[in-house]
Specification:
single chain; alpha/beta; TIM Barrel; 8-stranded parallel β-barrel; 16 helices; Glyco_hydro_1_AS; hydrolase
């Protein structure tokens, strides 16, 4: 709104960065860790860019003290990281692996030593392979109790030290890429009935974990992180406005309504029932979802891009076009659901090399939407730019494009705060460079450059990029640095 000019962020605002265990740790056979679904999946030919794996990743497993010291030098006051389930329970359940617990306890203690608030993601896509072998993982309702047992173990062991918990990371992404497009484990294609069933099991796992946390006396902040792609109607033609409404129900509210209200969107559920692909629910599920919705304290948002919605004829775009995983601009195909919506490119926005629209206003848009629709505080749990960073001969990385990207998004976030949105934290993706699930190591996101490419090897040495020093100043001024430049 024009009359509202952002000047900074509230006192106590958390400035952070985020990571995921599989993408940074390495040490895939060390410390008693069990096999994960990703350890198995990356060994299937053709599944990842140039057959990259997380076996070594960027070796955070051995270098976490170095990395956290760099976070402290930058001034981060929160670090969002995930726990690998298979490090805690190598077989998914059973006896606790104390060496795995100790590793994450050390990370938490190292953060607290530097006054960095640990923000723990319980599940960020790496599932113990033993549970896949035993009952197909998320496809079985048995996963719910095993997940809750795992979550309760973390709540108990890290009690008093962790105040921010994220139950699930991007449930909408790991389920769609796993059961609709075959790009993530378990690599199934167009299994729509199972896609919705898997999501219901994940919702129930989230809900029961939230309730367990409160029953155990947990007083901290808890919620899920959703990959939110806000939508704009192509134009004011009613059929395109309705395409946007359908998109939102099926691609956004299907998840956020369950987290915040404990119920599915009515129109979307009616549509799925008519198609015969709605999830089956056990007696009592609806009440559990409602109870958990009253106990979450924030909506986690991973924001990277917005989209455009247009009516899609029955012979139009499908959900199964080519995704750009190479960084060759323009190689992504238009996607959609026949008879409902499609997502054409936005001619008013620039894109990354991976064809993701660059839209800082979309971040403000989604914060406003969450505030008005759910009246929940917001944690921006991911936001960042993947790019082809290059290190010079004198070990400099000049990533002014990342500084520009983050600056404009933080400005938009500041506007949302000025308009009344309660935003608790902003976490960039990511602190160091890391493994991008489908894009290898060429797609760099970090403030810290890691010396490695697709093949195993490289020194793995860390080098601070220009953006490192810029974000340090942003944190020092609590965001005022950005707005004072205007």
């Amino acid at each position: 709104m024009e009359q509202m000019r952002a000047a900074g962020f509230p006192e106590g605002f958390l400035w952070g960065s985020a990571s995921a265990a599989y993408q940074i740790e390495g040490g895939w056979k060390e410390g008693g860790k069990g096999m994960t679904n990703w350890d198995a999946f990356v060994r299937i030919p053709g599944k990842t860019y140039k057959a990259t794996t997380g076996d070594v990743a960027v070796d955070h497993y051995h270098r976490y003290k170095e990395d956290i010291a760099l976070m402290a030098e930058m001034g981060l006051n929160t670090y969002r990281f995930s726990v690998s389930w298979a490090r805690i329970f190598p077989e998914g359940t059973g006896e606790v692996n104390e060496e795995g617990i100790a590793f994450y306890q050390d990370i938490i203690d190292e953060c607290l030593k530097y006054n960095i608030e640990p923000m723990v993601t319980i599940y960020h896509w790496d599932l113990p392979q033993a549970l896949v072998d035993e009952y197909q993982g998320w496809e079985s309702p048995r996963i719910i109790d095993d997940y809750v047992h795992y979550a309760k173990t973390l709540f108990s062991r890290f009690d008093g030290k962790v105040k921010y918990w994220i139950t699930l990371n991007e449930q909408n992404i790991f389920t769609s890429l796993g059961w609709l497009t075959a790009q993530h484990p378990p690599g199934k294609f167009d299994d729509q009935k199972m896609f919705y069933q898997v999501n219901h099991h994940a919702f129930m796992a989230h809900a029961k974990a939230v309730l367990a946390y409160r029953q155990m006396g947990g007083k901290g902040q808890i919620g899920a992180s959703f990959a939110y792609t806000p939508s704009y109607a192509l134009d004011c033609k009613p059929i395109n406005a309705m395409a946007k409404a359908n998109y939102d129900d099926l691609k956004n509210y299907w998840w956020m309504d369950v987290y915040a209200y404990g119920r599915y969107p009515v129109a979307a559920m009616t549509y799925l029932k008519k198609k015969g692909i709605a999830p089956d629910m056990a007696d009592g599920d609806k009440e559990i979802l409602r109870q958990a919705a009253s106990q979450i304290t924030f909506m986690g948002v991973n924001y990277y891009q917005s989209c455009v919605c247009e009516y899609n004829p029955m012979d139009g775009a499908t959900p199964y076009g080519t995704m750009n995983t190479t960084g060759v601009k323009g190689s992504a195909q238009e996607l959609g659901m026949p008879g409902i919506y499609k997502n054409p490119a936005n001619p008013y926005l620039m894109t990354t090399d991976w064809d993701w629209s660059i839209d800082p206003s979309g971040l403000q848009f989604c914060c406003r939407e969450i505030t008005s629709r759910y009246a929940l505080p917001i944690v921006i749990s991911e936001n960042g730019l993947g790019a082809f960073d290059k290190k010079t001969e004198d070990d400099q990385i000049h990533d002014e494009y990342r500084i520009c990207y983050l600056k404009e998004h933080i400005k938009a976030l500041g506007e949302a705060v000025e308009e009344g949105c309660q935003v608790l934290a902003y976490c960039t993706w990511s602190f160091t460079d890391l493994l991008s699930w489908l894009n290898g190591y060429q797609k760099r996101y970090g403030f810290v450059y890691v010396d490695r490419e697709e093949e195993e090897g490289g020194t793995l040495n860390r080098f601070k990029k220009d953006s490192f020093y810029w974000y340090k100043k942003v944190i020092e001024t609590n965001g005022k640095e950005i707005f004072e430049e205007e």
